[in-house]
Amino acid sequence: MADDLTFSTIAQLADRLAARDISARELTQATIDHTSAVENKVKAFNSLNPEDALAQADASDARRAVGQALGPLDGVPISLKDVIAVKDQPLTAGSKMLENYVSPYDATVASKLKQDGAVLWGRTNLDEFAMGSSTENSAFATTRNPYDLERVPGGSSGGSAAALAAGQSIATLGSDTGGSIRQPAAFCNVVGLKPTYGLVSRFGLAAFASSLDQIGPFARTVEDAAIMLGAIAGHDPRDSTSYKTDIPGYRAALAEKKGPWKLGIPKEYFGDGLDPEVGAAIETAIAFYRDQGCEVREVSLPHTEHCLSVYYIIATAEASSNLARYDGVRYTHRSADAKDVLDVYYKSREEGFGPEVKRRVILGTYVLSSGYYDAYYLRAQKVRTLIRQDFLNAYESVDAILTPTSPTPAFKAGEKADPLSMYLSDIYTIGVNLAGLPGISVPAGFSSAGLPIGLQLIGQPYQEADLLAIAHAYDSAHDWSAQRPSL
Amino acid sequence: MPDTPELNIDRVAELARIALTPEEKAEFSAQLGEVLQHVEQLKKVDVSAVEPTAHAFAVENVWADDVAQEGLPVQEALRNAPAQRDNMILVPKVVE
Amino acid sequence: MNYEAVIGLEVHVQVKTASKIFTRVGQGYGHAENTLTDPVVLALPGALPVMNKAALDAVIKAGLMLHCDIAEVCKWDRKNYFYPDSPKNYQISQYDQPICNGGYVEIELPASSRNVMGEHKQIPLTRIHLEEDVGKLNHGAHDSLVDYNRAGTPLMEIVSEPAIQSGEEAYAYLTALRTMMVYAGISDCDMEKGQMRCDANISIRPVGQTELGTKVELKNLNSISYVRDGIQHEIKRQIAVVQKGGTIVQETRDFDGIAGTSQSLRSKEEAHDYRYFPDPDLMPVRVDDTWKQRLADECPERPFDKQRRFMADYNLPYTATSVLVPDLALSDYFEAAVAASDKGQAKQVANWVINDLLRELGAAGQDLADTRVTPAHIAEIVKLVDAGAINSNIAREVFAETFASGESPAAVVNRKGLGGETNADELEQWCRDAIAGNDKAREQFIGGKESAINAFKGPVMKASRGKANPKLVDETLRRLLAEG
């Protein structure tokens, strides 16, 4: 049945497409149909492109018919977070500011996926300009958690996580600045990978915080995440922060790398605020790795308590500058009331930005302003060095670090009204961005209320092959990711 | 770091070019004051001998050769323009 | 009370690259509106900057030409401010780690006469940094139109110390700077095209006082002469204000070069707070010795060094060097011609280049690059004259032929039978005939009237159809007259 198709993995579909058991058109049509059935509940997408997607699917089928299929993604519907540019598609960044914007160019990840024959399907919802942890900050809709529609899917890539969890796409891309892939992955029972900073090109990703942002995949399994990462990773001359490194066969490495590994448990991540059910699930995962012969030892990341402060200074400072381009002049919303150029700025930005964006732009402007730079921004950059050093010290004795992805399962929409409590929901994911490391969230069970719980594994710089293999060892031995929400 | 973080919301909003309502100003001031209080803890960290991290993995001399390539056709460049005339972006008169 | 002026100049120079500083779309002047843009230039969502190697090369060269210290490491900072010509509403620039520090510009002040070399002076520099240019606003009656073609053009900012004392010095400074930038191929520095732009900070103080007075910034100085005139005007204005008991207010003034007047620009509504911070999208630049040396090797000799060398090595007069040196191609042409000629003929070569070649080029409306006259042709013509093969009148005729056709001077002489040196017997016979035909003059000459010899020269030249070398004719006549 159609649902089986749209809840399949890339690995399964690639085999069926190769065997001509199904066509890309059938798969894409099934995805479109299933989306129509559930989208009014989930609200994962900001825009859909059914005709265009079917045309891409037909092109894929035509390639396959002449023996020129492009690989495992050829003909597979994949949805991109609405903050990644795709030529001739809308790019709203979840903001009224870009409500009518259409991108004249492709992000590097978009052209890479196109080259691999993927069917680019829809644009997934997000917190405005990726600022948030719940996808409630979108100007267009609040995306719902498919496992409990009263609850948030996490954020900021909530649409990408929810769409995948709800069977509306086969794999998706998100962006992660402080946990925006991993936390929604944990909330929605899917795999979410934030690669090492520089592994995946940021060209075409509307910037939130340039030194922290990284694009990464959501997938149903770690194996699918490995396939996706292989498709999007690699040096890009158009991104100066893109790293020159060989891209190994991530999927092949899953079978080759068998462990046992040394895993570190940072004591600072298991303190106050950790939901007992989440803690228990992580303990069970730790026991699993021990049973596999892995050595699990406590490590210390002593500057963890400062991660949130450092993050909010650096991220908002960079954002205040990155978002200055949304000014009502060249391509954004322009206030109808603007009588002079200053009005164009003040009023367009007043009308175009939502409250969380305004709050962060204000904070970022403040910490950079005259007289405060050294006290805030420079100091934060220095503490960032210490945070990074903590991780590198830990890697002297362990291969990877294991933590919960989020202190709690998905919270209710509207529950976290004050910004600081919302910011605190990212405390386990932020350090990874500050240190530039790869991190992955893997489904690790459900709470008594049926809410998904995520296990975070943090790897060494550019060692995604190892990280994925470690995650795969757990993922392939459990069937959490085969669970489906009842919609 | 200043002892009591003081955020001059009017001045900062002006620098950021965002018009805020009085309610927003009051709300943001309070909320950001709370965040700044939280950030105060950074004072405790001894950073006297620490270099700042601007890039997690800094590489030097990342550049491209000077070879001109095609840009956007003017119609594409102005595709999303809120107002245009004579292939240029139109704005209210700028007084220099 | 006597006052002295203290002036600092901020000069922006566009770097002549093929593509923009942080993206590879082409750059240039005079293109149709908004045809030199791409996602980076327009600051579309997702666009990222990538440094242009050639722009870095150029600014390091500029630094080497101007005796600066080249920083081992420099970085990029964002200067945040909103303006419609600035697509990102921040400008990528260099704040606290510019690529060049210190250095100086050697200038030549005007002398009492154009034929005399003026006093030379070094104006110290604070720094040079690289940044991106902004777009262009076209103001209409009710609205403004923005063209982003210029946005992202590599731009050097050359900041002098407040060490310039007059409009004349500023004029000399800009002239020297421009010559050097053009020499090194860094920029064409055409102020009309905005390739070189200058803001001046001017203050006055009583002679002998060390602290600086309140400075006034003068903007929109769009020619080197306007810079000089604007500064002079501003100094006079400030002195007049102070002498009337007033005080100078810190402000920005706009100088109208045509009217010769200035007016205060509307005072800025808010103090700037540029919120500089390191651009996270760009990596730092490290300049090692190998790179620096390679660029140093590519730098041309500095113009004033060359001028001193031309005067010393070639014994050229100052006036000749001041024509040859400012134009790199012309001075190279001259040196090539000297190299192709015999030693000691540099002066003659210079004369041919300056008097004849430049005149013909001017008359024909050509550039040096267009001419068919090669440096070897100049050397050849000098040789022909020097050997007495042709006289200078014929040489001009030959040069005109070479200029028109590119045929070598020797070939022209041969083809047209203009050579006078071949038949000494024939020359002697013409001289004998001339002497025999004018007894009166012969007697006068023998009698001691030196000028009487000229009476024989006309008939000889006539007989030779103008080809005879006057020097040879003179020698031959004297020998025959002495023989009696």
Which strand order do you get reading across the main beta sheet of chain A?
Answer: 1-3-2-4-6-5-10-11-9-7-8
Shape of chain A: globular
What Rg of chain B, in angstroms, do the CA atoms define?
23 Å
Largest interface: A-B, 76 and 50 residues
The total beta strand count of chain B reads 3
Q: What name does CATH use for the topology of the domain at 1-46 in chain B?
A: Histone, subunit A
Question: Could you say what the CATH architecture of chain A is?
Answer: Alpha-Beta Complex
CATH topology of chain A: Amidase signature (AS) enzymes
Task: Work out the number of β strands of chain A.
Answer: 11
Q: Residue-averaged pLDDT of chain B, rounded?
A: 91
* Largest sheet features of chain B: 2 strands, antiparallel
Apparent shape of chain B? flat
Q: List segments of chain A where confidence is low: pLDDT < 50 over at least 5 consecutive residues.
A: none
Structural class of chain B: alpha+beta
The average pLDDT of chain A is 96
Range of strand content of chain B: 5-15%
> Runs of chain B with pLDDT <50, length 5+?
none
In short:
The complex is a heterotrimer of chains A (487), B (96) and C (484). Chain B is of the alpha+beta class and 96 residues long.
Question: What do these coordinates show?
Answer:
The complex is a heterotrimer of chains A (487), B (96) and C (484). Chain A has one domain: Amidase signature (AS) domain (Amidase signature (AS) enzymes, Alpha-Beta Complex). Chain A is built from 17 helices and eleven strands. Chain A has helices at 2-6, 10-18, 24-42, 50-65, 108-115, 158-165, 182-188, 222-232, 250-256, 276-291, 307-322, 341-352, 355-368, 374-394, 419-424, 430-435, 464-475; strands at residues 45-47, 77-81, 119-124, 171-176, 191-194, 214-219, 262-266, 295-299, 400-404, 439-446, 452-458. Chain A has an eleven-stranded mixed beta sheet, with helices on both faces. The radius of gyration of chain A is 21 Å and the shape is globular. Chain B has three helices and three strands, in the order ααβαββ. Chain B has helices at 9-16, 22-39, 74-77, and strands spanning 63-64, 84-85, 88-92. The longest helix of chain B is centred in the first third of the chain and has 18 residues, at 22-39. Chain C is of the alpha+beta class and 484 residues long. Chain C folds into three domains: 3-291, no CATH class; 301-416, no CATH class; 424-483, Arc Repressor Mutant, subunit A (Orthogonal Bundle). Helices cover 39% and strands 19% of the residues of chain C. In chain C, strands 1, 3, 7, 8, 9, 12, 13, 14, 15 and 16 form a ten-stranded mixed beta sheet that branches. In chain C, helix 1 packs across helix 4, helix 2 packs antiparallel against helix 3 (224-243) and helix 12 (424-436) crosses helix 14. At the A-C interface, helix 11 and helix 12 of A face loops of C.
